[in-house]
Design goal:
The protein is mostly helical and 153 residues long. It has a domain of 70 residues. The protein has eight helices and no strands. The longest helix is centred in the last third of the chain and has 22 residues.
Length: 153
C-alpha cells in the first residue's frame, strides 16, 4: 500500500474517497481504493470524517471489524486475481463468481486469505500457497459440499 504506518494508510483511504466524491483525478491505487469503498457504503461515512477514522479502534474481541483491514484484503484479492498470483487464484475466483456475486466471491476468498495469513504469522513464515489454493478450491465447490475455510482442512 506504500504507507509506512496506520495513520498514513488510513489517510490514503480517506483522501482517495474524498477525491472520488469531489470528482478529482485519481491515481491508479486511489481508483482501486475508491472502487472498494463504493462497494462498501457502510464504511463511507467513516472515511468522510478523517480525524475520527484516524483515532478509531477496532477490537475483534468486541465483535468489531476493522474496515481498513477488510478493504485492504479486497485490494489484495483483486490484485491476486488480476495477476493470477498465486497461479490458480483467478480460476478459483471465476468459479466462485459463477455462482455468487463478485463481491461475495471476494468475501469468501478473504476467509481463505485471512486463514493463510494467520497461519503464516503463527508459524513465522510465508503464507502456504498450496494450503491457500486448497482452501479456495474447497470454498468454490458447488452446493453443500463446498466448505468455508474455517471448516476446510
Amino acid at each position: 500500500m506504500y504507507a509506512n504506518n496506520r495513520e498514513q494508510l488510513r489517510r490514503m483511504y480517506c483522501e482517495a474517497w474524498r477525491k472520488c466524491r469531489a470528482g478529482e483525478s485519481l491515481q491508479p491505487l486511489e481508483r482501486q481504493i475508491a472502487r472498494v469503498v463504493q462497494d462498501h457504503p457502510e464504511y463511507q461515512s467513516m472515511l468522510e470524517a478523517p480525524e475520527a477514522a484516524m483515532a478509531a479502534e477496532f477490537f475483534p474481541e468486541q465483535g468489531a471489524v476493522n474496515p481498513f483491514l477488510h478493504m485492504g484484503m479486497h485490494l489484495a484479492i483483486r490484485d491476486q486475481v488480476a495477476t493470477d498470483r498465486p497461479p490458480g487464484v483467478r480460476a478459483a475466483f471465476e468459479r466462485l463468481a459463477s455462482r455468487l456475486d463478485p463481491l461475495e466471491a471476494e468475501h469468501v476468498m478473504m476467509e481463505c486469505l485471512g486463514q493463510a495469513l494467520w497461519e503464516a504469522q503463527r508459524r513465522g513464515g510465508a503464507p502456504d500457497e498450496v494450503a491457500y489454493l486448497e482452501c479456495l478450491r474447497q470454498a468454490a465447490l458447488p452446493g453443500p459440499s463446498g466448505k468455508s475455510c474455517r471448516s476446510a482442512g
